[in-house]
């Protein structure tokens, strides 16, 4: 709906259409509220949106999702939101959903915690007992963490110290300290910590509890949505519209409107166009720094919150290379599993190095996350061209001088971007030799890209830094100190596709005065369809036909161009 057609009064206005904001909108609209979601970009989705480059699809922020199996948390979430029937997921290579490449060392992480333990024990027999004990601790801490909201009543709460004893014992320690207590071999530590990339924090800063929950999230493998992140967003926006809610793109919010003698009550928003819209509740799914510093203004905040904002550290930023190649990537060793690549040095040293590297050098990036989406989603493969997304973490400082440029970028920035693209390709060559000779299209997303499309502070990719200072009781709260203003997203409850979605549900529950579990109760008529990315045996006819049509279209196009 265009800005001109928007009514000026709603029950709830949601700023930002990331997974968290859309999850909130689904819950509130189906409860009967008049809901409006406002998005500054021309498509909804935030990090989860998909876009096309020369006909090939890419998704900047959805690379895999965990716990999608029957009866698992993400599956139940989508069934509870009423969007499961509109989604199809592919389970990534179950024998190696994560390919770990540390220097010359190789290790594959399977979608089975018991097999993971035995495989690690066989590879590192001297560490076998310690590995078993450590991974059991990971499971215990995670299960205890997830159980906390379910302790009800006096007698149950009385048992919390015992029933969450592992969580309580290790909850205030960083990952490096805990793993050093259990594991001696440096290579084993690096393998077990490789998924630090999923929260962008090195072991000496990462909260052990957070890393435990993240590893547990993927214990049974990774899943990728058919149609990329855009398919997930489409299912969510359709659900919002089905319940009478509205999603309006290309409508950025300039200010959150406040009223009262102390200006402590949110009553609406001022759009970039100058139009004012009003609501009983405002939810910000925007970056917390943007929300408080720009949309509210520090002058309206308490000294305590101002101090918190000043001390807030945001997560790292990134370079993301989007490639289309005409190469047989399977023959080159790729499959639907992710590749995590880093040099054979201490993980903390590597992160320190990555944040201080001279980006003007011609050296290849030696740490990367590599994902082939046309193997994760076989229905998207046209028979010839594969799509790859390659990521490396960097510091924001080298990009600060470009942050105020408009859409017409300077020659200096464009030259820097091309230089970084070549550094990325050089790094990718070490994992996929010869790939540079098969690149058909390429584009690079930088921290400035993140600023422009996602509107994040310093181009951060995970919200606030996921260290002990910014999670759990120290995270930003869903209910703000401004009356009727709520927040959701990566900096509130948890990050990632699933974490942000759960955050959105929790925020909606606050407004509706109910328990989040009530809003996530799986609906009996909703079922998530899951197929194997590596095995087409059980693909339904409609999917096989879709794949045939895609390949036939490319073949027809090639014939026309040849003629």
Write the layout of secondary structure elements.
Blueprint lengths: L8 E7 L3 H12 L4 E4 L12 E3 L2 E3 L14 H9 L6 E4 L6 E5 L2 E5 L3 H11 L4 H20 L5 H6 L1 H4 L1 H6 L4 H8 L3 H7 L15 H10 L5 E3 L2 H15 L3 E3 L4 E7 L5 E7 L4 E9 L3 H10 L5 H9 L5 E9 L12 E5 L4 H10 L11 E5 H4 L9 E9 L16 H21 L7 E7 L1 H8 L30 E3 L8 H17 L3 H4 L9 E4 L8 H22 L1
Helix pairs in contact: 1-11, 1-18, 3-4, 4-10
Could you name the key traits of this structure?
FAD/NAD(P)-binding domain, alpha/beta, about 575 residues, seven-stranded mixed β-sheet, Polyamine Oxidase, Chain A, domain 2, 20 helices
Structural notes for this entry:
- This protein is of the alpha/beta class and 563 residues long.
- It folds into four domains: 3-54 and 238-312 and 465-518, 3-Layer(bba) Sandwich (FAD/NAD(P)-binding domain), CATH 3.50.50.60; 116-219, no CATH class; 314-454, Polyamine Oxidase, Chain A, domain 2; 535-562.
- The protein contains 20 helices and 19 strands.
- It has helices at residues 19-30, 73-81, 113-123, 128-147, 153-158, 160-163, 165-170, 175-182, 186-192, 208-217, 228-242, 288-297, 303-311, 347-356, 373-376, 411-431, 447-454, 496-512, 516-519, 541-562, and strands at residues 9-15, 35-38, 51-53, 56-58, 88-91, 98-102, 105-109, 223-225, 246-248, 253-259, 265-271, 276-284, 317-325, 338-342, 368-372, 386-394, 439-445, 485-487, 529-532.
- Strands 1, 2, 9, 10, 11, 12 and 18 form a seven-stranded mixed sheet that branches. A seven-stranded mixed sheet has the order 7-6-14-15-16-13-17, with helices on both faces.
- The protein is globular, with a radius of gyration of 23 Å.
């Amino acid at each position: 709906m265009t800005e001109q057609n928007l009514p000026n009064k709603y029950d709830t206005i949601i700023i930002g259409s990331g997974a968290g904001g859309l999850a909130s909108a689904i819950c509130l609209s189906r409860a009967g509220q008049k809901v409006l979601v406002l998005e500054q970009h021309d498509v909804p989705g935030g990090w989860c949106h998909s876009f096309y480059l020369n006909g090939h699809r890419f998704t900047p922020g959805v690379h895999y999702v965990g716990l999608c199996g029957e009866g698992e948390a993400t599956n139940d979430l989508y069934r509870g939101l009423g969007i499961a029937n509109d989604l199809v997921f592919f389970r990534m290579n179950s024998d190696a959903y994560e390919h770990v490449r540390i220097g010359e060392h190789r290790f594959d992480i399977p979608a089975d915690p018991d097999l993971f333990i035995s495989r690690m024990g066989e590879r590192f027999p001297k560490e076998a007992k310690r590995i078993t004990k450590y991974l059991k601790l990971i499971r215990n801490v995670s299960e205890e963490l997830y159980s906390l909201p379910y302790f009800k009543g006096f007698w149950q709460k009385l048992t919390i110290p015992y029933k969450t004893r592992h969580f309580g014992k290790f909850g205030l320690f960083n990952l490096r300290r805990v793993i050093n207590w259990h594991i001696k071999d440096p290579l084993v530590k690096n393998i077990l910590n490789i998924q630090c990339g999923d929260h962008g924090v090195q072991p000496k800063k990462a909260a052990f509890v957070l890393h435990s929950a993240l590893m547990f999230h993927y214990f049974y493998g990774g899943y990728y949505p058919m149609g990329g992140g855009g398919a997930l967003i489409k299912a969510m926006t359709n659900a919002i519209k089905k319940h009478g809610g509205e999603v309006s793109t290309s409508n950025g919010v300039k200010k959150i409107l406040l009223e009262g003698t102390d200006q402590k009550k949110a009553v609406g928003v001022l759009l970039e166009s100058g139009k004012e819209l009003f609501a009983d509740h405002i939810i910000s799914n925007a970056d917390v720094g943007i929300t408080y510093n720009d949309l509210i203004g520090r002058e309206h905040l308490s000294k305590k919150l101002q101090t918190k904002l000043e001390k807030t550290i945001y997560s790292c930023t990134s370079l993301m290379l989007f490639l289309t190649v005409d190469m047989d990537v399977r023959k080159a060793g790729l499959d639907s599993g992710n590749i995590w690549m880093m040099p054979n040095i201490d993980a903390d040293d590597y992160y320190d190095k990555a944040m201080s590297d001279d980006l003007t050098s011609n050296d290849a990036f030696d740490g990367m996350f590599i994902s082939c989406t046309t193997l994760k989603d076989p229905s998207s493969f046209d028979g010839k061209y594969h799509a790859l997304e390659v990521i490396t973490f960097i510091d924001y400082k080298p990009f600060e001088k470009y942050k105020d440029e408009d859409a017409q970028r300077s020659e200096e920035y464009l030259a820097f971007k091309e230089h970084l693209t070549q550094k990325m390709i050089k790094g990718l060559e070490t994992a996929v030799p010869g790939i540079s000779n098969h690149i058909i299209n390429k584009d690079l997303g930088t921290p400035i890209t993140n600023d422009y499309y996602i509107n994040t502070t310093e181009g951060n990719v995970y919200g606030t830094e996921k260290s002990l200072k910014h999670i759990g009781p120290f995270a930003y709260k869903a209910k703000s100190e401004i009356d009727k203003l709520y927040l959701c997203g990566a900096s509130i409850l948890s990050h990632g596709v699933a974490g942000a979605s759960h955050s959105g549900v929790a925020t909606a529950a606050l407004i509706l005065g109910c328990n989040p579990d009530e809003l996530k109760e799986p609906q009996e008529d909703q079922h998530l369809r899951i197929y194997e990315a590596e095995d087409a045996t059980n693909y339904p006819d409609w999917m096989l036909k879709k794949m045939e049509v895609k390949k036939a279209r490319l073949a027809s196009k090639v014939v026309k161009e040849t003629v």
